[in-house]
TrEMBL record:
NCBIfam families: maleylpyruvate isomerase family mycothiol-dependent enzyme. It comes from the Bacteria. Gene3D superfamilies: dinb family like domain. This is Uncharacterized protein (TIGR03083 family). Transmembrane segments: none annotated. Residues 11-92 form the Mycothiol-dependent maleylpyruvate isomerase metal-binding domain. It holds the Pfam family MDMPI_N.
């Protein structure tokens, strides 16, 4: 792949395909994001497919500059959209070409991969992100020294059991690449595994 951006579309469409093939009850299942069902998570992931920059600016102003408040407001509101609308947003070329301000192509890919894993890991399903995308996001998280989500990597060795990827020295944390991405993103896995925070 010439750019991480090229992995965004298959990640998002893979999640759409998984949800479209499942029972409607999947939309109400919990995710790794506390308090968010699948519908809320997808509504958050696909904001860029629905909101113009001007609309996003208005939402941010309404949230008084607090992105956390904006995210929860939009997720709760737009999570009530029909499933077909949310699936269409996941498949939207506008979403696939979006880059977060200051985040670039890797930021866009990380957004898609991490949030898709919030769904698939919680549901006990395989990752929908391409293997290369998972490794690219792992490399980005390590390059940031865990700072994206405040994880403390001191004294840890991370090993991807399914990707031949490893980093660090110390206490070994071995898991599939997708699970490592989620751990580095500050998530608690369904089995209770979590990385220390800074």
């Amino acid at each position: 792949m010439s750019s991480p951006q090229a992995w965004v579309a298959p990640t998002c469409t893979g999640l759409a395909d998984l949800l479209a093939a499942g029972p409607p009850t999947l939309w109400d299942a919990p995710t790794l994001c506390a308090g968010w069902q699948v519908r809320h998570l997808v509504a958050h992931l696909t904001m860029a497919a629905r909101l113009t920059p001007e609309q996003f600016g208005a939402e941010m102003a309404a949230a008084r500059g607090d992105f956390g408040v904006l995210s929860d407001t939009v997720a709760q509101r737009d999570g009530g959209l029909p499933a077909d609308d949310l699936l269409a947003a996941l498949r939207s070329p506008r979403l696939h070409g979006w880059e977060p301000p200051g985040g670039g192509a890797l930021g866009a890919l990380s957004h898609a991969v991490i949030h898709s894993l919030d769904v698939t890991l919680a549901l006990g399903r395989p990752s929908v992100a391409p293997d290369g995308a998972l490794v690219a996001v792992l490399d980005g998280q390590i390059a940031a020294d865990g700072a994206w989500f405040g994880t403390d990597l001191t004294g840890l060795r991370l090993e991807a059991a399914d990707a031949g990827w490893s980093w660090g020295e110390g206490r070994t944390v071995r898991a599939d690449a997708g699970a490592l991405v989620s751990l580095l993103a500050g998530r608690t896995l369904p089995d209770g595994t979590v990385l220390p925070r800074t």
